[in-house]
Amino acid sequence: MESHPHETTVGDILDALSASDRDTPARLAINPFFPMSHRLGGVVEAVDEQGRPIVYIAESPEAEQFGPLPPAVAVALAWQAPPEAPPRRRRGATGPSADQ
To answer: How far is 67 from 36, CA to CA, in rounded Å?
Structure first.
C-alpha cells in the first residue's frame, strides 16, 4: 500500500492543535458524504505493513456520535461546497396602487 503524496503527520496535527486552548474538546469528523461528529477515544502508535511507525486516533469505545457536523466545518474540510445564496426575486413596487 503506497502512502498518499501528503499524509497528515503527527507534526501536522500538533501544529494545528497548538493554536487551540488545551482545554478545548476535540472531536472526530467522520464520513465526508454524511458528515458526523464523534467523541475521540484512544491514540495508539503501531507499525504499518512496511514496518513504518504510524499513529491511529480512535473513536470513543462508546461510539458516541454527537450528530451532524456543522456545515461550516464540512465546508472548511472541503467535504461540501459553500452554500450559495438563494436567487433574488424582483420585488413588486410598494406604495399606493395606481387603481386608487
So the answer is: 6
Domain total for the chain?
1
In a domain, residue 50? The reply is: yes
Interatomic CA distance for residues 36 and 97, integer angstroms? 52
First to last CA, the chain: 79
DSSP bridge partners of 45:
55
pTM, rounded to two decimals: 0.61
Domain extent, residue 63, equals 28-82
Tens of pLDDT, residue by residue, the chain (100 residues): 455 567 889 999 999 999 999 999 888 898 888 899 988 888 999 999 999 999 998 888 877 788 898 999 999 988 988 888 778 887 777 766 655 5
